[in-house]
Structure formats: structure tokens, C-alpha cells
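Hi team,

Filling in the usual template for the complex we talked about on Friday. All components are listed, including any nucleic acid strands or ligand strings, so the model treats them as one assembly.

SUBMITTER: L.P.
PURPOSE: interface mapping
COMPONENTS: two
RESIDUES: 635
SEQUENCES:
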Amino acid sequence: MYHYITKSMKRQKSRSILVILVNCILAVLLNLYFGLIGSYRAQLTNLAANTPIKCTITNPDGTMEVGIAVKSDILRDLQTAHQIKDLECSTQLKAGFGEFEIARWEENLNLDVSVVNKIDSSVLPDNIKVSYQEGVDETLFAGSEKVCLLKKSDMEEQGFSYGDEIPFTVYYYVMIDEKRDMDILELGYMNLKVVGQIDDSDPVESREYPDMLVPFQTIWDAFDERGVDFTAEAVSFYVKDPLALNAFKAEMEQIGENGLLEIYKGEGVRFSYKGTALYVQDGIFVTMADRLKTALRILTAFLIPMGILVFIIGYVISHLLVNGRVKEFALFRSLGVKQPGAVWVFWSEQFVLVLAGNVMGCLAALLIGQLGLKDILTVCGAAFGGYMLGTTVALLWLARNKPLELLTSE
Amino acid sequence: MSKIIEAEKVSYIYQTKYQKTKALSEVSCSFERGKVYAITGKSGSGKSTFLSLLAGLDVPAEGTLYVDGEDMKEMDRDAYRMNRASVIYQAFHLFPLLTVQENVMFPMELQHVPQKEAEARAKEHLAKVGLPDTLYKKMPNMISGGEQQRVAIARAMASGGEILLADEPTGNLDSQNERVIVDLLCKLAHEENYAVIIVTHNEAVAAAADVVYGMSDGALTVVRE
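RESULT (copied from the run log):
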């Protein structure tokens, strides 16, 4: 039988080459198809990484991102939210060295304090460098230690050095009416250790920057200790997984339902609460993701038809090929070869040719380089399986005929 | 001479989705080694159906076929065709992808006869049927009809069986080749003790047979014994 199969493949070169070529092309086309799907999927994943969705708490019409009052309840919920990352909060205070009465604010209240949980370009201009005491770095802003960074010039003027505990009197701003008029109230007296300095020795930019930086949580704790309502002036964060935008929105709405956020939808504004809103900058991402998802949906919709197509191609080609060899099949039976054995001869011949075609297809797909080896092997395996399934059906269809009928038919 | 095949009230019905046709009706007869049998009759009379039953390619709807006393229904009919009974067809039916010699070697390959031995025996059989050795490496489509039929007979002999069933073996041949093939079949029966059963509507072929059966509407009658 083995000899028969090899002779049959060798002596019917054109037929063998046809089967190999068809399968090679089929494997390459399927690889291109799956490569396209893979490429769209990669674009979608990369889109999430390369197009972060920034969210900012604004005033209700989205025109102000700073100078608003974001309540501590909201901040707490955002701190524990699962669908956000890189939460940035800041607020502004006024402070002065030592202890003094509010009546003497003009000569004492001369420090602009930025309370932040992270230092970025919105806090300090790029040319202003920050240096720290040994063993300390910028991660201190994520904590709640009673520390601060002062301007180099102030430190020199006051004769401070790293590690000194400096007494401050701190004041905070409060909005007194809807017209955003502000008042300033005393928070109290507190000691902060100097652990770094803001190098203002060679300021190039005219942009103003703070005299002092303090960790956000440190001040929040100080407010809580004194029973004063704490608010942040600017809050922004990123959506953790842009592809799970609906889960993110559900979580934000959940925060809204807890009474913290009052859902308000205006142009460019998704959610709001009592004078603030959440502005989600997802326009570009959503548009691009929608396009990619639509393309992916269309492509994947063809997955089952593609499988059926491969099966049909396998069936039709095998049917046409074996149809010209029915007498050969019947002769096997007539010579005493059992039906499964006769089917096996034709099936294994097709198996070898289809496998050869798929191996060539794999090599071609490797050269194209759209998919990795594992994916190429999976795709070629699927093509091979689909085609051979069609071949099997065609051969079983042939096998149901009675040998003598096949041999005596014209 | 011993009986090799015996048919006992054998009937066969062709069944389609819409109708049933009785192709054979209670056929009883027997075949012995060393004799040539001819079964004659018009087209559609049931001759080829009976031959397919004798070849074990199908089973009777009713009645029993015995081979050396063994019920064919109980036998491995594929093994029977591989080792004991061979069929020769009007259209020769040689494997188009194998050479003359490979065609004759094929039944031996199925019986797992070693390659060299199979080759030697194939040459022996081809010589017996009078085929010149210059044709051994040729493909079937390169030789004449008479030569192809001789190759088919050599292939039948190669299986080593003792029953040779021929379905219109001279139907595609001229009278000269017809004579050669008939003589060859008679020689196999009389000299090598084959039971040769020929289905034919050719009177000349029937005339050469030792026993002639007539088939009409599925019923078998003895014409000459």
C-alpha cells in the first residue's frame, strides 16, 4: 500500500502539485487573515497603552481644572477606585515661618505652599530642579510624613539645613459663595521637617512656582486632626484600562449614586457633583477604538464562514480528484482490500500532499512574518484539519458505492 | 471433481428509495474446480448480480452461498477475494498508475509476499499468459486491449486463488484476442484446476465452456451440462 501511495503521488505529478499548491495558498491566505485579526488586536491593545484616557475634575461646564473644591469624600472614593490609576491631587495653601496672628499676615504670610502627591510640570517648571536630603526621594509625596521642600533662597536666608524641623502657621482658602469669592482661614500651627530644596538660584522662566512643597496626605491628615473639611483644588487621574471604559464609567456612576457625584451631562462633561464635574478625555480613544473594534468584528464574523469554506474546498477538490479514481477505489475492494483500507490509501495520499502544502504555507507565512511561529502552526493546523475533514467526507461518500457498480459503470 | 461453490435458493433484491426489484430468484447451482462455466443471458437478466454475489462483493437477500461447504455470510469476504477468488472485468480495470508488472505484483503485495519473490512470480504469471517481457515495464494505457486482459488474468492468477470470475472478459476485444483469452481461461481450468465462471452473452465464449447456465429474469436454468 505504501508503495502504491508513493507511486500514485509521483506518477500523477500535476494532480499532486495542484493539491500542494491549493493547500499552500490556503494556508498563506488563512495566515494573512489571522495576521490581520492579530494586527487589529495588537493595535487595539497598543491604543490602550499609547492613548491614555485622562480624566480631570472640573467645574460643571468643564472650563476650569484648578481652583475648584473637590471634597475629601470624593477623594477617598477615588483613592480606592479599581478602574483608575495615577491619581494626582493638589491644593494650595498659604503659610509663614513661626507662629503669628492673622492680623500680622501681611509681614508673615509670605509662603505659597503647593500640597501635592506627585511633582510634575504642572507643579514646577521644567528648569527648576529639586534636590533631596540623602535617602529621600520624590516618593515621599505619596506618603503622609510631616516633611517639606523649601526654596533654596529661603533656606539660605533663614539659615535652615536638611533635617531641621521648622514651625509654620498654615492658612487655607475657602470659597464663600457661588461667585467663587474666596476667604482665607487659619488651619493652625505645625512643624515640618525640611528634606529637600527647590533650586531657584537661576530661574529662566517667568512662570511663578511655589515657595514650599508638602505631601498631600500630610496636609489632609492635618485638616482631619483639626476637624476642618478638606478639599482638593485640582484632581486628575487616568483610566486604568481604556479597553474597560464601561467598567470605569460604571464605577464612576456608582460613586455618583452614593451621593458624592451628581450625574450631570453637558458638552464635554460626563459627570458632575455640586459644582464639579468629571471630564473624561476619551474622545480620541473611543473613536479610534470603535474603528478598530468594528474592523475586528467584521473580520471575526468571517471566522466560521472561513472554516466552512476550507472544509468545502477540501471536499470539492477531493471529490473531483477521487471522482476520477472511483474505479481504482472499486478495484481495491474487488482485490480484497477492506473498505477502511481502501479509503485509507486515498486518505493518506491526500494527507501527505495536504501536509506538504501546509508546511510550504507555514514557511511562506514565516517569511511574511505577520504571525509568530506558534500562531502560524495553529492556523496551518486549522487549515489542515478543515481541508482533511472535507477530504474525509468526500472519501466516505465515495466508499458508500458498491464496487461492482463502480467497475461496471461507464 | 469437487464442488467449490454451491448456491442454494439464492435471491437478491435491488432496493431503491422508491422501489424494490428482484434481480435473482431462488438460484441454485454449483461450480466445480477444473471446469469452465458460462452464464449467459440478456442485459439486466441478473448475470452480473450473481457474479458479484459469487465474488463476495455483496450478500444474497435470501438463500445461501457455500464456498467449500462454508457459508459465505460467515466468511471474511474481503479475505476470500484477496486469497481465493479473483474477478476479471470487461474493461480490464488495471491500475492506471502501475506498470504491467506492478499490477500483477499488487495482489501479492496485499498478501505481504516479499518484493523479490513477488517480482519473480509476477514474471512467471505474465509469461504464462503469453505476454512478452518487453511489455512488463509499460503502463497499461500503452498496451493493447488483448494484452491488458492478459495482464488482468495474470493478476488474477497472482492472488493464488482457485476461483476465477470473469464478467464479459471478451466484450472489448476483437475476435482474435477473444479466442486467445477464452483459450487461456479454459487452459487455467483444465490444466491448473481453476473454477472459471464466465458471465457472457457471447455465444462463441459460451460454446467453449464445459457447462452453460442461462439466466432470464433472475432465474437460472441449465442450458448445457
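MY TAKE: The longest helix of chain A spans residues 13-50. The mean pLDDT of chain A is 85.

Thanks, L.
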